[in-house]
């Protein structure tokens, strides 16, 4: 199932307060941390990262590389270069790309073989296969005013949500942040989904829009961006602004554990069908996932949702990855299959986004775009796949 925070501005690792308390040990950082309820780490260390193994490969090992039409991925390369062109190892790559004909597949293939080296990605246990899911940009009917028809709010980022950069205090935690709120003089975890859905008072006045379906709102947060069709027919684009700092818990997995759905039924469509037939049980189910996403209104001029790289995504050629293992912006050759099918889907993609449940080395979320077909494909995509990361030639595999 595709997941959260698609348009986070930077690929930093955000930790919830309780997790960080356990890592930082008693009294090390926040007075509001209840470390007595968690194991105390003997030393202040960064949380374990799902470290991948990158093994240098050959172009011939990439399925269909010699015959695949790679020209549709060229716009995604150009978007990545918008974000990476000033980085030293990317400057010559992006400069060379400007001289390549966007319609010349032969020249593009030569460009990649000249400027990049393929590395196959392996999981920490040595396996080469991982989970490939899909996501899309949904359309919801809504209003700027609450009504009987539209009772569920889409919130903007709250004023009392704190972001604490641990690296400012402890250099060994550079790149990690906490989210929380003040309670008196203490920093405590921010309100969870159940508390927010119950109408936490501090969010009053932060409503951007109101929509008519709680499940559609939930999946809007899963996708991280979308469009709202207002009562006058106008459509407004919204994107990820913030997240409450709580970890994502899959409600599809919960339904499987409860015996309500079979594993093959736990797609977006299957969950929506369950919700339609169990409206009285829906609030409790949604509350099982404490994570909550806040939005912002986006300019109408944007052609597509913004990914975590800060550039618009390219339909069917952008993927979300775990930025702790795959650097944002790089080309990724994906070898998987079409949703609910054994038909090969071998494609040159670009790692331009992140997701709350996209964790691990061989793990990706395929962006299908906007519309009903995109929703159908994304909702049923749960395939096995392999990945090759293309690193600029002459550089070791490393995160940006």
Question: What's the helix and strand layout?
Answer:
Layout: E1 13-16, H1 17-24, E2 53-56, H2 74-84, H3 91-97, H4 105-115, E3 116-122, E4 130-137, E5 139-143, E6 152-155, E7 162-165, E8 176-183, E9 186-188, H5 193-197, E10 207-211, H6 214-223, E11 225-229, E12 235-243, H7 251-257, H8 268-277, H9 282-286, E13 293-298, E14 318-320, E15 331-337, E16 344-353, E17 363-370, H10 372-380, E18 382-392
Parallel strand pairs: 1-8, 4-17, 5-11, 14-16
Antiparallel strand pairs: 2-3, 3-18, 4-18, 5-10, 6-10, 7-8, 8-9, 11-12, 12-13, 14-17, 15-16, 15-18
Explain the overall architecture.
The chain has a domain at 50-159 and 206-249 and 289-392: Barwin-like endoglucanases. The protein contains 10 helices and 18 strands. It has helices at 17-24, 74-84, 91-97, 105-115, 193-197, 214-223, 251-257, 268-277, 282-286, 372-380; strands spanning 13-16, 53-56, 116-122, 130-137, 139-143, 152-155, 162-165, 176-183, 186-188, 207-211, 225-229, 235-243, 293-298, 318-320, 331-337, 344-353, 363-370, 382-392. The longest helix is centred in the first third of the chain and has 11 residues, at 74-84.
Q: Assign a percent range to the helix content.
A: 10-25%
> What is the general shape?
globular
* Count of helical regions: 10
Q: What is the mean pLDDT? A: 85
What profile does the largest beta sheet have? 6 strands, mixed, barrel
Total DSSP E strands: 18
CATH topology of the domain at 50-159 and 206-249 and 289-392: Barwin-like endoglucanases
The largest beta-sheet arranges its strands as 4-17-14-16-15-18
Helix-strand pattern, N to C? Answer: EHEHHHEEEEEEEHEHEEHHHEEEEEHE
The top-level CATH class of the domain at 50-159 and 206-249 and 289-392 is Mainly Beta
